[in-house]
Design goal:
Six copies of one chain form a homohexamer. Chain A has helices at residues 62-74, 92-97, 121-133, 164-177, 194-200, 218-235; strands at residues 7-8, 16-25, 35-45, 50-55, 82-87, 139-143, 150-152, 155-159, 181-185, 204-209, 249-252, 259-261, 266-270, 277-278, 283-288, 298-301, 306-312, 316-317, 322-329. Chain A is an alpha+beta fold.
Chain lengths: 330, 330, 330, 330, 330, 330
């Protein structure tokens, strides 16, 4: 595979704080040599590991974008041992649009790894991150939330891994992040996510789900901002211990049976609030059909017991949409 | 102006419960005689006034749609004295899409009154409602909420009116609705809304703001469902008194000085939660700029003191967007 | 109302054959002074009435477009007494696209009369035709067919008129056209069609339905080509009598009860072929639902007896679509 | 290549009738974990071969969709020996839209095999069908028709194969289907179709062309419904012999010389009806140009003699469109 | 007609320099109370007339936008006698997009006067300018250029007027602007332009054509910047005389015969450079057809003699496009 | 990789002049067997090398399209020794649209090499050109200009090559083309351009930049037309020497430091005219911001000295756009 057409205006080997761009070529009808500028901040000093923190993988997930913008502006190189690479608005066109999917190619950026230097914008950028940035890193965390469609109890999210040592390191970093929940998932077939790409390169890597609902939730933002610094403490890039007020609850979503799906389109009227403890067989909510006022609502029930970890945010749902996800203790 | 091309499959002069459609012609490339079916339910019995209840004026405002769907299915004609006309998903194409604006013409339905029988779909439907349905009515209430963009403290909303008697009737119906707040606004130049159209025809008329955030908030839904029945009790169509647990707080938004606007696009990080009591000059929040991590956030301040009645929901804002609206006691 | 910005490159008062354009301004991003050229042919000689023949009101109705193209190329001025104005592809942008609706503004041209000189393209053109061309005319016929969505038994179509003398003239011209059926309809509220606009100006005027299915049916084309010349014979512009092999059957569609509507979207499987004689209460067809293979098809029945005059062509239908129209003898 | 993200809610190893879905992830702006539900029905009993029947490869080809919906609802497991897998609306988004191409990515599904688990929807689904469903099968038939653009004499369609035994099996299954014509084609470079994918896996496989014109032709539907059952009889999954009233005529289209192409865009006026016997050099039709009424029509002629097997349906054609295809006896 | 929903954040009766916005409501799917902010600068002092200078009527005409931005930043209130109202980017959505037409409704702003307070954005803004701003004015000039599609010799442009005194004032202001050419046109039916709206209110009003080609031509920008100040000198708002190095040549375009039109689409290869003196009957250029390399180019000729005042800029043209406009001395 | 679905209607081994098409399948909703016809002309005679000349790689670059159309019509086979293959409008859908990017898939054709026979249109065509046409060639030149977005001093453009002999042949052909400048560039990672694809096959290959600005510049067209013939003389396909009035200046663009980029979006007001000699540190122009008339323009400066080889044409620029490129002598 050929080399990347992306260039960086920062020098990854330099010390101090640099604020620059990844320059990604994007031909337009009105400028063949157009470029998308993806902001990047690098803070390096002394010796120590490299940590890559990213947000804006999906443009409508705000908690991480704001946390990393603040960190990018305030992180003092004098206090750093090692290197911090920050992409506060990674999938920049989607982030500027405030949309999950790219306005350029309609793709979900987190389904485009390990990328392709000759593909559309999302693939070109994913390829650069995978082939140029990830090889520089020891730790990586990609800050997600539920976005427009879902509300999720703030959680550091990792994968179940075959390598026990890596699993332990992953759990340790997740707990250090200090969200209310540390959640492990079994990745379906090493999916084409940034997290999977980082794992494939032997990096201690995490994702997260830190709120959602299409808004910037101030409480979740505070968890995110603290967590991002906690990762730097945990990695040893910042001195001192992570600030974790309460030990995270370790949970998982064992199977598709822990999901409630809408079998048809309609308006979803949930029975419970996010974070509730729910029982298998209990009502999860009802689906209403505006096209036929005579039709009774369709009752949906939980297929498993546990914590209502993720709930549909938007009122109108499409056939096949998950509307609830239940987590259980590991 | 010519007559409406819309036909109804219900007989407005008949007794009992009827569920049918407004048939609105909508020519398509694949069917020149296509029709949009707008669900309508009419429940009539004995003698008494006519009440028109509508929801789905904006397709992403779910509280009213669900409340009226339930009412349409369960309202017992035997208990009615008078006539109830229900449009649970009035601007049907927008409601099916779960969008504020019409997917057919991009128009905001509530800016299309009194309509035009030769205009696009929204105008044709507005004209029918104004010229055919409103003349049948004594009371009218259009159930709105903040939709995707805004979260609003649940409120019955009326206009300041020149006619003191109508003002009194309006306030009485608003209080009977029984939301936490009864809010009066000064309509700018008799704007082209359904509420203004109803007032122009001498109907006791209300709008409302019952939540928002693009979701169906169960608490607000309960207020809405109770309020819709309360209106029928108030009008005398249902026997018994409205169920109003707490007398609504009567408030208003005196001027544009009670709004906080975003002067530029960015991510809005609010300082306060909806419903908070805030002070003029205090921080309302800050605006962050992902395109330039070096730029400090822009601090926004309140221009007036009062209740944080309406707050921007979506994280990303555009230049000129109101992000806060303050209400004060009347 | 202000004057039209449209100009014609033909001189309506000149004798002989002229082929030119209506020049309709259409500003584009890449040319502010862009113009749409609508082809027009005028053939005039001696003295006699003026006949306006139009096709391409809807771009996917081909029988009339082809008939008038042939007529425009071959009509010999020496044989004409009076004036023939031909617009073989009247709503030119739609006709070039082969679509019913305009690619410029999505409007159905036949819902835009009497037009507006400051509206979008369709309104500007409709205004010119109504205010400049129609006042020149004694007879007018607009050649329609079922287009993409419908198949229709070839018919000359007129309106029920209050003026008995005009009604008689209309029926006489319709019979002279010589399609298998002469059909009269009651126009709903003097709808904004070209036919209604012509009637409003006291012109003997017809529409037609001459096939459809999105194709050019050669049999129906032959009826159309003969009919267009028959109109000229009937008007006295061409010498000789109309060629009408069989006296048309005079029919009508009395009410909406003669329509079968699809209450939901699905695939329509018709029970009968176009032109069949059908009975009220008999099966009209069934609607199948690909989203749920377990759901039995929905059976639709005729609401009236008569001739299956119009049948849905496209397999997939939307909620509210008419799928059958029954005609009865007058 | 990585594994598929698609999951099935049916158990392919279970006996009896199951109706469920292929769940295909499709991230949306309003739901990152959205899913497209592709209906699937499996009927299995006793022992015997597996037959995969598919329709809705192109969404505007209705004969197969309706035939398989009826079969899916009525096939009695007790009468089955072996297994029948039915996908009545395979490329579900296109089928719901009634369009050939996908509304999600604009791709022609039958050009996407053998698929790609990281591509757009069509590629993800094609990959699942190729890598999961096809390995289960002994026989496969994909029910096509001419769709919106073409009318075709009903035909079972197979490929010329190098393997004489497979060729014989293919012809036998095609004849058993029992359409008026059995047609063999030489596949251009093992094109990326479902048929080619099935052949590559050693499956006895057929495609078909069963009508078209954008409609559900009842006569062709009956041929299709009978043919689908005939395939099950032929495979031994249903007892008894195929019902083939008349032995199919075995034909082929030898080369591009048997096509008539429109060199320019215009309205095509065909000289002959589908199914006619035509002669090389005779007029195939004429092309008319609405943009210039003075231009004479362009006459097109047949380049070969034979049966007019396929004819352009839609009146308006684009440059390069085939408007006629001639078949000859093998 | 109802009042405007637009509000201004500047006080038109105040002295000094104010920079603010016209706030135009624009409902969006993600914010029902969205607003478009149109920048406005007002500079007032002492006593004297009011001059309205506007640019960005079409978003791709840059000379005026830049000239008015510089004037808005640098005009010293102390030197003003009267009032200057500046809209440097009047049709703001189009100007931000760098397009002639609005990205909101596809309309050409200069075809939307006198506007409509209930129409789409362009109509709402036009109505405000016509009904609120124009009544404040004594002089008005709207700075246009050829935009993307055309190159034009820099000219102040006025209308032929019936009122001789107004004609004289118009010519005087045009000459004072000091472009190489002063050009008078006969407005077709008092077209819906800002210029016509201003004239209808008795204001001394001009338009202009100051270059084009989709670029900011520095030479033309200099003429524009000087001309804008000249208008203020001419009106007496600034002291001193206009700076007019050479008396403008007074010209006109007498009729459509002075236009050369492209009868078909193709690539236009012009024979002469802008500003050349050309002769009727001489070659104006040729049209080439990429779809048919065998077809000879179509030669176009001038229909009149004079100055090549306006030339098509973009290489590819559409049928009906003017490609040359000839001006003659008055 | 599988074979191409593209077929040619010309015989590359035949002598004489042939004008035909590359037939590229393009499935449409209204015709599954639709085809795009890409015009191709082949002129062959006697013995000699094969030269491929292409234009319309980007649809808005007109100089080459017109030069090759003229050459295709006028090249006399009797004067040819060898073979000339001409694609005057190679990326045909983009050329018909007059756009850089494809209206079919939004891709930049020159980023699609070496193509993919199963990709979208651009990839299928690129694959055919790379795998079928390039192997026939000894010399290749692809005629580009600056298109809509840029103005460039006419230049033959080649790559810096590792193979000294090929480098010499490339420079010789570039000088023979006879533009004012011969410019060598260092290709970034053997980018997916036609030029790189040709080099990879050992062909002496050139690109060019011959003007731009979205127009057909007659002066640059003359250079292009002469240059295209010069290449044939240079290759020995035409007798006689190239016509090169002035030896081209050999230049290069050494690095990104020779570019001036717009850091934000705005209107660019250039300081110098194309072709000027400029100094590092001098003003390159200024960026103006219509959204804020109070903000001073942003001054941009040159980062290197040399010839202003390429300048932004369109007035409005996006963040990251190059607005100037400086060339220096080799």
């Amino acid at each position: 595979m050929s080399a990347s057409p992306v260039t960086a205006t920062v020098d990854f080997s330099a010390k101090g704080r640099q604020s620059g761009h990844l320059r990604v070529p994007q031909s337009r009808d009105d400028h063949g040599w157009g470029t998308i500028l993806v902001p990047i901040v690098v803070v390096a000093n002394g010796s120590g590991p490299t940590v890559l923190l990213t947000a804006g993988n999906h443009g409508d997930e705000y908690e991480g974008q704001v946390a990393l913008l603040d960190l990018a502006r305030t992180l003092d190189p004098a206090q750093v041992q090692g290197r911090v690479i920050l992409l506060p608005a990674m999938h920049f066109p989607a982030a500027m649009a405030g949309k999950r999917l790219s306005p350029l190619d309609g793709r979900d950026f987190n389904r485009c790894f390990p990328g392709d230097p000759r593909g559309t914008f999302a693939f070109v950028l994913a390829h650069y991150i995978d082939s140029v940035l990830l090889p520089l890193c020891d730790f990586q965390m990609d800050l997600h939330s539920g976005g427009t469609g879902m509300d999720i109890v703030p959680s550091a999210v990792g994968h179940f891994l075959d390598d026990a040592a890596m699993q332990e390191k992953t759990l340790a970093m997740a707990d250090a992040f200090g969200a209310p929940i540390t959640l492990l998932l079994r990745e379906v077939n090493a999916g084409p996510t940034l997290l999977a790409a980082a794992e494939a390169r032997g990096i201690v890597a995490l994702s997260s789900e830190l709120g959602g609902g299409g808004r910037l939730n101030p409480v979740n933002h505070a968890i995110t901002a603290r967590g991002a610094r906690n990762v730097l403490h945990h990695a040893g890039v910042l001195a001192g211990k992570p600030d974790v007020p309460t030990a995270p609850r370790r949970m998982t979503v064992p199977s598709l049976a822990y999901y409630v799906f809408a079998p048809e389109g309609g308006i979803f009227h949930a029975a419970d609030a996010l974070g509730a403890t729910v029982q298998a067989g209990a009502p999860a909510g009802r689906l209403l059909f505006i096209e036929n006022p005579d039709r009774p609502p369709l009752e949906l029930t939980y297929g498993a017991s546990g914590l209502l970890w993720c709930a549909r945010h938007v009122g109108r749902v499409q056939p096949g949409d998950p509307v609830c996800v239940i987590a259980t203790d590991m």
